[in-house]
From TrEMBL:
EC number: 2.7.7.27
Subunit text: Homotetramer.
Protein name: Glucose-1-phosphate adenylyltransferase
Family, similarity comment: Belongs to the bacterial/plant glucose-1-phosphate adenylyltransferase family.
Function field: Involved in the biosynthesis of ADP-glucose, a building block required for the elongation reactions to produce glycogen. Catalyzes the reaction between ATP and alpha-D-glucose 1-phosphate (G1P) to produce pyrophosphate and ADP-Glc.
Extent of the signal sequence: none
Gene3D superfamilies membership: Hexapeptide repeat proteins (2.160.10.10), Spore Coat Polysaccharide Biosynthesis Protein SpsA, Chain A (3.90.550.10)
Source organism per UniProt: Mycoplana ramosa
Site entry: Could play a key role in the communication between the regulatory and the substrate sites: Q67, W106
One Pfam family linked to the record: NTP_transferase
Cross-referenced SUPFAM superfamilies: Nucleotide-diphospho-sugar transferases (SSF53448), Trimeric LpxA-like enzymes (SSF51161)
Keywords: ATP-binding, Carbohydrate metabolism, Glycogen biosynthesis, Glycogen metabolism, Nucleotide-binding, Nucleotidyltransferase, Transferase
Positions annotated to bind alpha-D-glucose 1-phosphate: Y107, G172, E187, K188, S205
NCBIfam families: glgC, PRK00725.1, PRK00844.1
Amino acid sequence: MEQKRIQPLARDAMAYVLAGGRGSRLNELTDRRAKPAVYFGGKARIIDFALSNALNSGIRRIGVATQYKAHSLIRHLQRGWNFFRPERNESFDILPASQRVSETQWYEGTADAVYQNIDIIEDYGVEYMVILAGDHVYKMDYELMLQQHVDSGAQVTIGCLEVPRVEATGFGVMQVDEKDEIIAFVEKPADPPGIPGNPGMALASMGIYVFHTKFLMDILRRDAADPNSTRDFGKDIIPYIVENGKAVAHRFTASCVRSDFEREAYWRDVGTVDAYWQANIDLTDVTPELDIYDVTWPIWTYAEITPPAKFVHDDEDRRGSAISSLVSGNCIISGSSLHRSLLFTGVRANSYSRLEGAVVLPDVTIGRHAQLTNVVIDRGVVIPEGLIVGEDPELDGRRFRRSDNGICLITQPMIDRLEL
């Protein structure tokens, strides 16, 4: 008779978040911070989604590997994720690239970022490892993926999205059989393989992997001894297991967490300014595709102590108002109008200014009479009085970082170079 599980598998798992990437396609947004530390949704950082998924799934041991410009990320983790208690068999380790294996070697790839901390991982004695990317926005119950991993007898289980084949060329793509066993894994193929029974779609890797810990440690040691390896999960580890062992695909739709208001399985790589702007602005919809108000699956983050948002003045052309917008704490909307905009903590929008399609990061000041349309404004920027953005594409492109879709990224150095 098969023995029933006494406790969730997540209690014997460690989540290991790879959070070292720059995210260069976000341009100046990642000049001072790593992509996982970029602000999202009014209060959170991008990494909070992977960490919240782990916590909500029941995982109580978490490690975060950092590398590129990690200070703001580490500070956020120390402030917002410091509630784990060793006496409850919980742990939260921040693991900067610290040349622990070699005095000259930083993390050389995603696999190396785990390999260099093998001794820390093995000390915890966990049965399973859940390897996560720290730079995607989604809600997922990793316990369900762990259960599939154990039930299938796989050596690695890979989280994957179903995407149209024509859109899969930028992903690692899996070719699977009828049982979702992976028979080939290719990085960014020109002609992605289709899904059996659904040839117009392909299975794209989410950068989420589940291993038995001992197997992962063995395979990482083998990879570290290979002088030809690039020390990367997608390029080296996964193709080796597909060829020599058993790899199984786990479809995101099987473990995506959805509230009653979410119709589709939501996953976003907010790795470009356009995608970042769109995902934030989407939250202003009456019924957004991502429900951040779902209290059954909260997005944990550093909760600042702030006074409430404040709206003042009620004259015809000087009314503090916000339509289809999200406004965070410590914002003062002083005779300014917001339309379909998202304001992070501590924004000051002064009289006669107008914001439409604006994603405004913390501590920004909007000067009087400014008219800003379809913008992302970096933290701490002071927008001068009367600045107009979003009406003259040629002028915007000379002064700011303007995307192909017409979104303008505005930073303080760009403002300082203006001739007003």
